[in-house]
Amino acid sequence: RTPGSRLSAGQPTEAEAKAEAESKKRRRRRLFVAGISVAAAVIVIVLCAGGLAVLRAVSGFRDDAADAREDRRLRDGACLELEDRLNRLVPPGATATPQARAVAVRDENAATRIYVGRLDDQRVEDSWRELLDARTAFAEALDAQVKSRTPAFFVAPAPRDGVSLTDQLARWSPAACAGPIRRLAAPDL
Questions:
Q1: Is 164 part of a structural domain of the chain?
Q2: What angle do CA 88, 77, 172 make, to 5 degrees?
Q3: Mean pLDDT across the chain
Q4: What residues make up the domain containing 120?
Q5: Helix axis angle, 165-172 relative to 122-148, nearest 10°?
Q6: How far is Cα 116 from Cα 16, in angstroms, rounded to an integer?
Q7: pLDDT tens digits along 154-177
Q8: Is residue 111 situated within a structural domain?
Q9: What's the CA gap between 40 and 173, in Å, rounded?
């Protein structure tokens, strides 16, 4: 090397500097492409997970709706079975004596207890039982009427929040239960 040459002991040549700069550019491009690839992969994974979550939610909503329809169908069927059982019995109002009326009331109560035993809602079940308890008290009063000659009267359960128990039952029960509720609410007819 001559003292006038551009090359000195610690400095790279122009070609080496260009090659190193090109190498840095390639590394940057590779890192940039790798970063974009990783970001794209993360976005695809997030979209797939989100899509699956949406599909699961929609599927769950459909399942819930189908379950609700099936539950409604079963409840309606149970009410129709109750009405059928009640229709096979002699109504208390069609009897001639207090003892026969008491037996008719108890028969209707027994038929209704089958329906009440199938209920899943504790509030509705308790209301039905309250109506049955009032009817049982009426049947006992009819039995006592024979001995004491004191007329028996049906006393409907006290209203809650200003709403009669039968109205609450009609609101909480399927529409198919309206007939049985009216029939059971008037055992003296």
A1: yes
A2: 105
A3: 88
A4: 73-185
A5: 140
A6: 93
A7: 999 999 889 999 999 999 999 999
A8: yes
A9: 54
What pLDDT score does 189 carry?
Answer: 80
DSSP code, position 93 = G
User: CA nearest 101: which of 89, 116, 88?
Assistant: 89
CB 172 within 8 A of CB 123: yes
CA distance 62 to 55: 10
CA distance 159 to 156: 9
Count up the domains in the chain and report the number: 1
27 is a domain residue: no
| Mean pLDDT of all residues in 128-149 | 94
Pick from 162, 154, 147, 163: which is nearest to 188 by CA?
154
pLDDT per residue as tens digits for the range 4-55: 455 555 677 888 888 888 888 999 999 999 999 999 999 999 998 888 888 7
Q: What is the pLDDT of residue 18?
A: 84
3-state secondary structure of 148: helix
